[in-house]
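To fix ideas, we close by showing one paired sequence and structure record:
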Amino acid sequence: MIKGERAPIAWALDTGIGRGLAQAVVNRRLLDWLGGVFFAFVCLFIAAYALVKPDYNWDMVAYVATALEDRYQDSADLHAATWKVISESAPEAQLYEIQYGNPYNKHQWENPADFQSQLSMYRVKVGYVWLMRAMEPVVGLANAAILLSVIPSLLVGALMLYWLARENALQAGFILAPLLMLADQAQMTSAVVPDMLLSLVSLAALYAFVRGREALACVLLFASVFVRPDNLILIFALLLTAVIFGWRVLPMLATFLASLLACVAISKYGGHPGWWAHFYFSCVKIQNSMAGFQPDFSPVAMLQGYMRGVVVSLIHNDWAALLALFVAGWALLNRYGRAVSSRQNALLFALVIGTIGKFASFPLPDDRFYHVFILGMAVLLVTIWKPRFDAAFSVNIIRSK
């Protein structure tokens, strides 16, 4: 800039409108309010869109079938009842996609016995399926499945907004809202999967840890394995954290052992095919029938599954990049003297190793599988940072003069 020439921002702030806007912007109370309103608006918009345009996907079909399974002895009857529920509510284009969109979907649409064989991988979400059945008399199975994504999404947003308010960090809503989108919350809210419900229960447990309510946190973590048994990874990460950071180990050890026993019982009750068969199906080669599917263990196939997970995660998903960003942010906050408490450091450590452990145990690449880890890190970091846009704007005004 030429010496003596005024910066555009300085010129703008010298106008009457500019001075009025500057005074409004540097008002902390107003910016706190706007940060909260912006965050709430994004959460409400995501939920409203999901209600208007839900994603009738293959998983929805499988979960509806699982909820109906106890009423039908014959696979053909179950198949017909499932598709009746889906057909009555799904738009024509989405119905065609889940019936004929790819060879796997087409095969499941045309083969009732093979279709039922897939449900062994869905029955293990016993809490999620139970809630679908409980809501069915009021709203119907299809709507119950949709609402079990929408309602938890709203409650996740409400919990995070309350968290920001309690930590005096409402302006962080301007930052946290875009992070929700990058963490795939919009797609998770539209899709019919148990992951949003899992995120709600797990995030509530993390907040309970922040507030020092360990007993409540442990109860919530135990409940979470009935939504998705693989949340045992988060529980194990928190157990390791308790040992390393000097928390009371006994409550976390008891929670982990109880959850492990519950997972074993759920797997046996649901007829789950086992880790390797599920790994092969999800990460190596999809199977039209899971009846009696027990492939021989293959290190080559296992490596192929991990390589696929790495490539798809980096190219088509955001969780890995967000993990790297948050680790860097965590290091910078510690480096430059932010007041990071021992409890906050411990929870960030648990979420980082939990994210890595989740991928290491089963390399599924989709953002939704890491949602609670990413969201937990995001809200912890912004409440430590407590960004103040009013303070930053005040400094810029002074410098521009």
The chain has 22 helices and no strands. The chain has one domain: 43-387. Residues 146 and 352 are 30 Å apart (CA to CA).
